Automatic annotation (TrEMBL):
InterPro entries: FtsK/SpoIIIE/SftA, FtsK_dom, P-loop_NTPase. This is Cell division protein FtsK. CDD domains: TrwB_TraG_TraD_VirD4 (cd01127). SUPFAM superfamilies: P-loop containing nucleoside triphosphate hydrolases. GO terms for biological process: cell division. The keyword Cell cycle applies. Signal peptide: none annotated. It holds the Pfam family FtsK_SpoIIIE. Keywords: ATP-binding, Cell cycle, Cell division, Nucleotide-binding. Residues 393-598 form the FtsK domain. ATP binds at G411, P412, S413, G414, S415, G416, K417, T418.
Length: 913
């Protein structure tokens, strides 16, 4: 197909050159002979009269007078030969031109205006006519004048430059409008897009074509911003060139011929100037665009735009409103321009084309239209590619790979950002299996955008590609940090594997290690700016990790999708260019600011339910507008999720769901259910804020300092920590192998402590609920070295017990408080561990006495400020601001720094055993 098309084009070009050459020879020889004759006749008065009057117009009396002149025979012979040469040379010229236009300007391209006007063309746009009619020309003949059609090349062949004459604006509009209607009527709807710019007018540019403005077939540009049009055209040229280069083609025409598909529409850009020279920068941009435009299927029609282009340009210079000189016919022939097509017919024709284009697009597209016919057939080795929306019925794709490794999404509340994320995730998940794509989804705002992708009470299905889903984490910045740590660890693992196999990217690693599991990882962080919300260790560490992943993640198939609903999300990147610049794929929802480049205002005018997709770091030439279908309404995404779940759920685990709005339940926690009797029991205090569903706990071996303090006046959280610690320890001891000693002087908490005591008894453990704590403490301390049963002291509100502990019983050297200090210091080595709740740091210090901080090896702080905790954290600065439902946990034997945990949900009342 390609060779035939190339041969046909060569024949057209050869024919054009031959005709031009023929015209030049004929006109040149005629002019030369005439000049020679005039030079000779100038010597003679007779010859001057002959030239002035003309042979055909002379009277018989003049002929009689001239014939008596001595040089009459020579002069008459000379003039006869000139006329004979001229007319004999033109005998074949008009016929050849007629045949040329007929063959290369079929249908509306070359016919006189008629019933084709307004018909919807059927040419799919794979090939284009070589010539387009603009008028006719006439040359004299021996008997009658000879006329022929004048047509010019456009689209793939040539640009057109029109120079007007005074008071010819209407004529120029007629020429342009005629050409555009011929082009639009030749091709099927959607195959041609027209761009209009007029330096002198905001509106009313070719007003008869305005019915097309409600479609993408016609676009207007601000008269003061020629750069917007040039940037957009430059973007199309770059994109088409990149696509062609990948396929080994040098032009859009070659791509069409090789694929047998239109691929891209033809574009006709009409530029109305005012005869003044463009600004130097705009002139340079126009020359650059014009040079690469034809190969990209872009044709420029320039009116009164003085410029010199180093590419194929035909010219049409108007003499008046009816006549012009064309570069196709030379300066010696005048072209009689076709009259403008009737305004009413053009308006109706444009309306019919617009209706056909809207009908072809099939109305609003649905989420189902984004999905492939077969699920999970694509490979992610090189990149991830999937449509997220539609423009004029054509799918608009998002590509995540080496060229566009990370994504920045911006859109204010209500702009459709969440809906876009669902379209993106669904389109990817439908094309790539969970072996090819792993998703980590995190939503910092208060909501449950991604909760439906995990199994729930109403719907047991989940998205098999999702490995982690975090929702309601707006107050848990630590969970975002945990995700970044996990990604950094995975990056190191993949880099080590790549080094071992001597490769540098994911595609080569998968090829060299086919047995390995190397899916592409996409981490979506909605409202990511919360990671940088404080001036603390979380912000510093998150910044460092994010920059490292952004720089090195592309080569190992780890990609970030960072989304924000306001400008704060973008400002969070100020001072962090290593992250911002790596997000070369920018997606702007309507009214989004600063997501695209500063001079790119496409999102401001984007309609609702649309998005501006830009793979070129937000520069305007990379804009692609896409209508994003509804993907987030009830049952829309769910249908796809059910299909994927039924297909993959047997082979892939359910995702880990972290919901910051709900406290974990101890009985449902894997770490609790896996507990078994052991010699090194571990008290579980809460859930770790981590990628893995892990519990934070304290091992209680027979070693100094292995006591636990719960600090703060937050009663609910303190009771929860004490409860989970006791029940987890009970699960690790055989019946009657340990004694739980409980004491609670706080009347409001006595019911909860009684419930716990009954639960432990129901499970078969020895439990004593003490009314006289000082006596029991003294008894245990005095028998410490001879105890036969380990003991767990669960002391509630120790600070409330201090007055009683300070009283010395008759005959006692040490008070109950002194003996409690002995138990804290020496008890762990003898199997006696204390888990106590102090409602203030000062009371804990009073309890421990001088240099007693080492006796508390681990603690969980609640509503206590970080600066109060430094003495119990090896003197380091502790960054902690209390928040409901959270505790700060530190174990000096395992922690380098404290970590935030979530206390387990305490059960209400005694449960059946």
């Amino acid at each position: 197909m390609g060779s035939k098309a190339s041969e046909q084009r060569n024949r057209v070009v050869t024919a054009l050159e031959r005709v031009r050459h023929q015209i030049g020879l004929v006109l040149g020889s005629a002019a030369g002979a005439r000049q020679a004759a005039e030079a000779e006749l100038a010597k003679l008065e007779l010859e001057q009269h002959i030239v002035r009057v003309g042979m055909n117009n002379s009277t018989s009396e003049q002929h009689a007078e001239w014939s008596r002149h001595p040089a009459a025979t020579e002069v008459f012979t000379l003039l006869g030969n000139v006329r004979g040469q001229f007319y004999s040379g033109w005998e074949a010229g008009p016929n050849a031109l007629r045949d040329l236009v007929t063959n290369n300007a079929p249908g509306p391209a070359g016919q006189q205006p008629g019933n084709w006007l307004g018909r919807v063309g059927g040419n799919p746009g794979i090939t284009a006519p070589g010539l387009w009619r603009v008028g006719s020309a006439t040359v004299p003949g021996k008997d009658v004048p000879r006329s022929f059609d004048v047509a010019i090349p456009l689209l793939d062949e040539s640009h057109l430059s029109i120079t007007s004459a005074p008071k010819t604006r209407a004529a120029v509009d007629g020429i342009v409008q005629n050409l555009l209607m011929r082009v639009l009527s030749t091709f099927e709807p959607g195959a041609v897009r027209v761009h209009l710019w007029d330096v002198g007018q905001l509106t009313a540019i070719l007003p008869d074509l305005y019915p097309l403005s409600r479609t993408s077939a016609l676009k207007l540009y601000d008269p003061g911003r020629l750069e917007d049009l040039l940037d957009e055209l430059a973007g199309h040229i770059r994109r088409i060139h990149a696509t062609g280069m990948q396929a080994g083609h040098t032009s859009l025409r070659e791509i069409r011929q090789a694929s047998g598909q239109r691929v891209e529409p033809f574009r006709v850009a009409v530029l109305y100037g005012n005869g003044e020279t463009l600004e130097p920068e705009r002139a340079r941009e126009l020359k650059r665009v014009a040079t690469g435009a034809l190969a990209a299927g872009i044709c420029l029609i320039m009116i009164d735009v003085p410029t010199t282009l180093s590419t194929s340009v035909e010219t049409l210079s108007l003499l008046d409103d009816r006549r012009a000189i064309s570069s196709m016919t030379g300066t010696d022939l005048v072209v009689d321009l076709d009259p403008p097509m009737p305004s009413g017919q053009v308006i109706r024709a444009a309306g019919r084309i617009a209706e056909a284009l809207i009908a072809k697009q099939g109305g609003p597209r649905s989420f189902a239209d984004l999905l492939p016919t077969e699920l999970g057939k694509e490979s992610s080795a090189r990149e991830l590619r999937a449509p997220v929306g539609f423009f004029e019925g054509e799918a608009v794709e998002v590509v995540i790979g080496d060229a566009s490794p990370h994504v920045l999404i911006g859109g204010p509340s209500g702009s459709g950002k969440t809906n876009f994320l669902y379209s993106l995730l669904g389109s990817f998940a439908a094309r790539y299996s969970p072996d090819e794509l792993a998703l980590y989804l995190l939503d910092f705002k208060e909501g449950v955008s991604f909760a439906g992708l995990a199994p729930g009470r109403r719907d047991a299905s989940w998205l098999p590609h999702a490995k982690l889903i975090g929702v309601n984490v707006n107050t848990d910045r630590e969970f975002g940090l945990a995700l970044l740590r996990y990604l950094a660890d995975e990056l190191r693992r993949r880099s080590a594997a790549a080094k071992q196999h001597e490769v540098t990217n994911l595609a080569d690693l998968r090829e060299q290690d086919p047995g390995g599991h190397w899916p592409r990882i996409v981490a979506v962080i909605d409202e990511f700016q919360y990671l940088f919300a404080g001036r603390d260790g979380v912000t510093a560490t998150a910044t460092q990790l994010l920059e490292d992943i952004a720089r090195r993640g592309r080569s190992q198939g780890i990609h970030l999708v960072l989304a924000s609903q306001d400008v704060a999300g973008i400002e969070a990147f100020w001072g962090k260019p290593a992250v911002f610049e790596q997000c070369t794929l920018r997606i702007a929802m309507p009214k989004a600011r600063r997501v695209l480049s500063e001079t790119n205002n496409a999102a401001v005018s984007a309609p609702k339910w649309h998005a501006v997709i830009n793979h070129d770091s937000g520069v305007a030439h990379g804009n692609q507008l896409a209508h994003v279908p509804d993907a987030s309404s009830k049952d829309v995404f769910v249908k796809l999720q059910h299909r994927l779940w039924e297909r993959y759920s047997d082979s892939f685990k359910r995702p880990r769901l972290f919901d910051g709005a709900h406290s974990p339940v101890l009985e449902q926690f894997p770490a609790f259910n896996d507990l078994k009797p052991t010699k090194k029991p571990r008290a579980l205090l809460g859930q770790s804020i981590d990628v893995d569903e892990a519990a934070c706990g304290v091992e209680l071996p027979k070693a100094p300092g292995r006591n636990v303090a719960v600090l703060g006046a937050a009663t609910a959280e303190a009771l929860s920590i004490m409860d989970s610690a006791a029940r987890s320890l009970a699960r690790q001891h055989h019946d009657d192998s340990v004694e739980f000693v409980l004491s609670c002087p706080i009347e409001a908490c006595l019911s909860a402590v009684t419930d716990l005591a009954e639960r432990l008894r129901t499970e078969g453990h020895r439990v004593s609920l003490e009314d006289d704590l000082p006596a029991r403490v003294i008894d245990i301390a005095e028998k410490l070295s001879s105890l036969d049963t380990p003991k767990i002291l669960l002391l509630y509100g120790v600070d409330a017990s201090i007055p009683a502990l300070e009283v010395k019983a008759p005959g006692q050297v040490k008070s109950g408080l002194d003996q409690l200090r002995v138990l804290l210091k020496q008890g762990p080595a003898h199997g006696v561990h204390t888990i106590g709740w102090w409602r203030s740091i000062a009371r804990l210090k009073d309890t421990l006495g001088f240099a007693g901080t080492d006796d508390i090896g681990s603690w969980a702080a609640l509503d206590v400020q970080g600066n109060e905790l430094s003495p119990f954290a090896a003197g380091q600065v502790v960054h902690w601001s209390p928040r409901p439902g959270r505790a700060l946990f530190f174990d000096r034997t395992t922690h380098g720094a404290p970590e935030v945990i979530i206390p387990f949900q305490r059960p209400e009342g005694l449960l059946d055993g």
